[in-house]
Amino acid sequence: xxxxxxxxxxxxxxxxxxxxxxxxxxxxxxxQEEVEPSTEKxxxxxxxxxxxxxxxxxVEQPTxxxxxxxxxxxxxxxxxxxxxxxVVLGGALLFALFAxxxxxxAIQPTIxxxxxxxxxxxNIDYGKELFAQYxxxxxxxxxxAGKTPDGKTLPGLPLNKPDFKYANxxxxxxxxxxxxxxxxxxxxxxxxxxxxxxxxxAWGNSDGGPLSAWQVMELEDLIMYGTDQDWADIVxxxxxxxxxxxxxxxxxxxxxxxxxxxxxxxxVCHTFDAGANxxxxxxxxxxxxxxxxxxxxxxxxxxxxxxxxWLVKWITNPPSVKPGTAMPPYxxxxxxxxxxxxxxxxxxxxxxxxx
Length: 355
Description:
Blueprint: H1 6-35, H2 45-50, H3 76-139, H4 166-169, H5 173-189, H6 213-225, H7 228-240, H8 258-265, H9 289-292, H10 297-304, H11 310-316, H12 318-321, H13 340-351
Helix pairs in contact: 1-3, 3-6, 3-7, 5-6, 8-13, 11-13
């Protein structure tokens, strides 16, 4: 026998109670008219005389005054009896109302849990649609990236992985929060990398992408709560939409020169113009930096040691050379966006140019 949804039961009870209240007020109006009838029609002429003279009596002159009719008084015992019924009925309806409110608060946690599960299922279903449209070709049909069935390397990183699964991290609320933040921010803002490495575009409306904040959340729910069956459904969605099952890997971006990369990466904080101030007051001017610099003691010591890669090491992971420095790691080996080859091209094309 199929179970009845609690929300349906509450809706039925609320409807019946509402109808009962309407019926009760209708009863009060009708009964009030019966107990206290309206005023009788005024009496005039012969009818007025008949109130004062017996039949066949001689009337020498009409009554010189008007006698207003006196309505019949209701029976006090009947009024008291009806009042008792009204009080009992009103109390019963009021009790039913409070009982319904109490029942709602008693089962409200269950209703909320069911609503959250239903909304999560809706979000995951929409997330599958979005993944099939926007993420499929880079992250793969199952979200695990890596290689396609025909051996091609996918440019995206794995999303369907244990570290992102809520079931695996739910015991650590901090990790759950950090994972949600990482996924949301990455989808919304994208993740730039230096060519020939693929960059992830910004998908959120706030950063110029096509997805609303709610749609980003739907993708996040798919990544964190989607089951193996959900991921398997994505191929079916592609087929239903008439899209190819094989991933359509985009062409790799053109390789940029070291000067081009420096203009987009380094100039956020530094300047290469002689005599100019850097956008970040704490960042040094990089014009003739190799011959005039470095400026901090730790980097000076690394250069003085005769290490030919002192500048590569500094750009790759500055905190490893000078702990506490404000300059973040830029090398991919330290979690940054630049490959070692790109860092070396920046050094040769810009920092060593003219030295």
